[in-house]
Amino acid sequence: MAALRAGLIGLGAMGRHHARVLREMDGVDLVAVADPGGDPFRVAGPLEVLRDVEALIAAGIDMAVVAVPTAFHEPVAVALAEAGVHTLVEKPIALDVPAGERVRDAFGRAGLVGCIGHIERFNPAIQEVRRRVAAGELGEVYQIVTRRQGPFPARIADVGVIKDLATHDIDSTAWVAGAAYDSVSAQTAFRSGRSHEDMVLATGRLADGVIVNHVVNWLSPMKERITIVTGERGALTADTSSGDVTFYANGTVATEWESVASFRGVSEGDVIRYAIAKREPLRNELEAFRDAVLGEENRTVTMAEGLTTLRVAEAMLASAADRGRTVSL
């Protein structure tokens, strides 16, 4: 079978990694790249850097990755759908919900594979936590907490930290729990002089009763990518920067030291760091996209799922604009 002809539009900080992985994948040939801003990371290699999506389509591609700024997701994705090109759009699906609906509908009408690049679903640490939660290793799940913070990325100019970063945690939290968001409340801060928020503290409840909390910002010198799932038998933590998964079991040994025991709820038990295969998330994601295009099992994040995540993000923004009012979804 001939290799799928792939195109890439957007050669910036994320696009350069897509170019690398697409070139390394079996069954895919990267045949065209486009970016009106040129090729700042020099990833095009022998390929001509095309100016726009129309030129990319004219190259005769079967599948495409869209890694342009969020404001351009809708026009680029819709053009690809109308041209009959299977497409992965980097998260979020679009700048706002109405635009996201138009993107979803364009791919639905065309009967094409359309998916969203919520890469944390393909992180081996998150996948391992989801597998263990689904297997009942924590028993009933009570709470999911995430911390995603680090230095300011000057490249992001068209959205704030909620749509750019918190969407990772919204998608992965709902996926790990297997339940949609029921309500959210958020507080934001604007500390870097931009028109978009750069810090958010959000709390919420999922449809199954699990409570959630997200700490996300662009103003920390300390980079964190942590997810903690707490249940009746203990807690699972995933560090998606290192790919580590650790289980903290509730203890079965009574604490005899009274002054220590008085400060503890459940007792502390064994701590296990699991040894798991640490495969690059982007490779997992793009291989899932390729397989879906080939008609195999669809393991992608669908556009409908991406739109649901964007709705939660916009609910957080609406809550923050109304002094933290709880918004039902």
UniProtKB/TrEMBL annotation:
SUPFAM superfamilies, A to Z: Glyceraldehyde-3-phosphate dehydrogenase-like, C-terminal domain, NAD(P)-binding Rossmann-fold domains
Matches recorded under Pfam families: GFO_IDH_MocA, GFO_IDH_MocA_C3
Keywords attached to this entry: NAD
Keyword NAD: yes
Domain named Gfo/Idh/MocA-like oxidoreductase N-terminal: residues: 5-113
InterPro entries: Gfo/Idh/MocA-like_OxRdtase_N, Gfo/Idh/MocA_Oxidoreductases, GFO_IDH_MocA-like_dom, NAD(P)-bd_dom_sf
NAD as UniProt keyword: yes
Listed Gene3D superfamilies: Dihydrodipicolinate Reductase, domain 2, NAD(P)-binding Rossmann-like Domain
Domain of life, source organism: Bacteria
Domain GFO/IDH/MocA-like oxidoreductase: 126-236
Molecular function GO labels: nucleotide binding
PANTHER family assigned to the protein according to its UniProt record, in alphabetical order: BILIVERDIN REDUCTASE A
Protein name stated in the entry: Predicted dehydrogenase
Provenance organism: Flavimobilis marinus
